[in-house]
Amino acid sequence: MKRLSFALTLIVLSAIITGCTHPMTVTNLNNYHNKTIVALDERLRIGIRANAADLNGHRFIHAVGRDLLKYNAQCTTAVDNTNEFIDVIANISVVSKQRGSGWNFWADFPGFLIWFPSWHGYNYDLMYDIDVTLNDAKTGKLINSMFIPVRLDVKHADISRTWVMWSVPVISPFFGGLHNMTYDETVTPLAEQEVSPVLADYVAQEIALTLHYYKSLPRDRFEKLQQLLDDKLISKEEYEMKRKAIVDDI
Q: What band does 224 get if pLDDT is binned at 50, 70 and 90?
């Protein structure tokens, strides 16, 4: 009988813990998945200079360099003052920010009545501001600069936050909701594990698109730019901007 009671207790506790959690989900990550691969027309040697506030940022920039290999680029972070062995210098800067949501208050109060955090999760925002500047390694001339803003919508809930709801009914969900409006730091490593590979490839493709025809003659560059537009790989606005850059470079 004691064993049965113990087993039932474990089952109930397991159900409560499971019911109070929601797996980490990035709801709009597909927006940053590359649908096609557009490699460089000619192989380029790119020297990467990284600027990031933390180790995760440097790891991300390293991943961008690694992913550029699939786009026909040879990358290195060993950039000296002579720039003798590289064609392009890529200065890449990453600034990450996170924030909670006022919606999380309502998820707890009165959402606890329908176990809302377990099937919806708490809302969080992950933001990355990525700046890329591309310069000719020999002349120092600016090729292009890009600002890539990334805004990710994350849903997540674990027992470290949701347990408060059940300690004192009504009162605990109210104060727990106030606390859960803040960002949960445990989300960051979970999200970056899923997000970083996708974003690194996304940034690598943006760099490859910019340098796609860089070493070609002007006439060939116009033709290749037109092909990118015809294949709907760039917008009309991007086409006009890149075309003007070619004209200015002649």
A: confident
Per residue in 84-139, pLDDT tens? 789 999 999 999 998 876 566 555 555 454 455 555 678 888 999 999 999 998 88
Range of the domain at 65: 17-100+117-155+184-212
Contact 88, 137 (CB under 8 A): yes
What is the phi-psi region of residue 153: left when phi exceeds 0, alpha when psi lies from -120 to 50, beta otherwise? beta
Please calculate the CA angle 66-70-73 and round it to the nearest 5 degrees: 75
The average pLDDT across 235-245 equals: 84
Do 248 and 132 fall within a single domain?
Answer: no
Task: Decide: 199 and 214 in contact? Cβ < 8 Å.
Answer: no
The reply to whether 35 and 130 lie within a common domain is yes
128/250 same-domain check = no
pTM for the model: 0.74
Please state whether the peptide bond connecting residue 110 to the residue before it is cis, i.e. omega within 30 degrees of 0.
yes
